[in-house]
Amino acid sequence: MNAIILLNALPVFVDIDIETFQMDPAKMEEKINGNTKAVEPVHIAGLSADMDRINKIAKKHNLMVVEDACQSLFTEYKGKKCGSLGDIGCFSFQVSKIIGCGEGGAAIGNDDELMNRCYSFHTLGVETETGSPARRRWMIGAPKYRMNEFEGSVLLPQLDLLEERVNRRTENAEYLTSNLKDIPGILPQKHYEGQGKATYYTYDFRYKKEHFNDVSLDVFEKALNAEGIPTFRQSIFELNKEPVIENTLNSRTFKKIFSKERLKKYREENECPNNAQRCKESIGIWHWALSGTKEDTDNIYNGILKIYENRDKLT
Length: 315
Ligand SMILES: *Cc1c(COP(=O)(O)O)cnc(C)c1O
Known about the structure:
37% of the residues lie in helices and 11% in strands. The chain is an alpha+beta fold.
């Protein structure tokens, strides 16, 4: 969203599928207009979005596909890795991610011309490094997002651990999902056909309080934490309703660029009811809790079961 706003473009939100928590391709087409340039699916929580359908719609409308794979490093979809399924794949190495070096990130792609533009954008807008650096020309006005060698040296050894960790989390997460079937009111994030092994940045599920004596999600989360289960709620607030949206639409720049009618229409159409529901119901378990042994995974299940069995005592 921020990247789009900083280009003085309107970020148009597509609602999610309530069962997979990913952008719903069925809701994508109605959001496309003559000014749409790109679509940005987010592979949320370490699972893949429905990329075949998204790519197909993007192709039909001549849109670039920019994958936000920050939470899905090494997640596979139909035998390929997330971030390699669209035109550009984006990754983050910020501290909470699967591998981290403090701050930093990466963008990948196969189109040299496009990658040269990415390179230029991340390094002050100068040309790609061909020939003498002193002969490089300044092409565009751009920021400096360069990662330094120190960060790289912290990051690189972590790559060696990645495959094994993803394999282990995939195994543990699938085991947890098969156990959780017994507990009513716990609805794990569903996969699309083609989902291979997955990063499980967070193991997300929806919590249906009617099966837990109407105990709120806040209280349920406290109970999980008391059982030693580390949680993260990615979506407490609806992103499309955050103050940044109104602040941006009301800015002088946006009022100059977009007509009153366009901004009015944007406001009217800026509704994502499934995502609103997800914000109320979903919670995740941090990746490191799923990186342990089968016994550790049993402990997560037993903790949730204990809460379910004692739901009458929760307040
Ligand atoms: C972490 C994250 C980002 C941002 O990463 P930064 O490195 O902080 O810019 C973007 N998208 C998703 C889905 C993320 O999880």
